[in-house]
Amino acid sequence: MSNPTKIVTGKVRFSYCNVFSPRMNEGDGEGDGKYTICILVDKNDKFTIEKIKQAVEAAIVNDKPKLANKNGVVNRATLKMPLRDGDLERSDDPSFEGKMFLNATSKRRPGIVDANLDPIINPDDFYSGCYGRASLNFYGYDFNGTKGIAVGLNNLQKLEDGEPLGGFSSAEDDFGGENAYSDPLLG
């Protein structure tokens, strides 16, 4: 029987990739870093969006005791939901335009493979801006009175390269073309 809270996405774009070493957040204890990634889903990808919504619903059912109030009722209006609208929440970032997004985390390093299922070892080969698929699990949480659905990161598959996100440029771009070195003394 399959797990209704676990999904594999269709083709998505990856951003804020911290998947080769854990990222420490303020307030994390020693050794408590997490692997994190932001997953951008095109709003036209109804298949992946529907899978996410179904997994969220399954997590609400599975974790109802954690999410419900003292009367056993889950107040969906106050739950923090993982799938968010990039046009509304990240209008300052063009890479979020026309996208839904969610953040996924794990205390365990995710498996990362290429389209042929060969492991990706080099962090330069998996970066913010590349495209692929993600294996995710959804679960309820109640942390200091805040209740919602979180996204666990299982594994990642890179399908193709994309324009790197984050304002990075190559050395060739920085020092070639109009930026090529010429000695001002020699003319």
Explain what this protein looks like in three dimensions.
With 187 residues, the protein is of the alpha+beta class. 16% of the residues lie in helices and 35% in strands. The chain has four helices and eight strands, in the order βββααβαββββα. The protein has helices spanning 46-62, 64-67, 86-89, 171-175; strands at residues 6-8, 12-23, 34-42, 84-85, 99-106, 111-113, 131-143, 146-160. Strands 1, 2, 3, 4, 5, 6, 7 and 8 form an eight-stranded mixed sheet that branches. A hairpin with a 2-residue loop joins strand 7 (131-143) and strand 8 (146-160). The model has no long low-confidence stretch (mean pLDDT 90).
Concise account of the structure shown:
This protein has 187 residues and is an alpha+beta fold.
Structural class: alpha+beta
How many β-strands, per DSSP?
A: 8
Poorly predicted residue ranges? none
In round numbers, the mean pLDDT is 90
> Could you tell me how far the N terminus lies from the C terminus, measured between alpha carbons in angstroms?
74 Å
- The rounded Rg comes to 20 Å
Task: Annotate the secondary structure layout.
Elements: E1 6-8, E2 12-23, E3 34-42, H1 46-62, H2 64-67, E4 84-85, H3 86-89, E5 99-106, E6 111-113, E7 131-143, E8 146-160, H4 171-175
Defining key terms:
187 residues, alpha+beta, 8-stranded mixed beta sheet, 4 helices, 16% helix, elongated
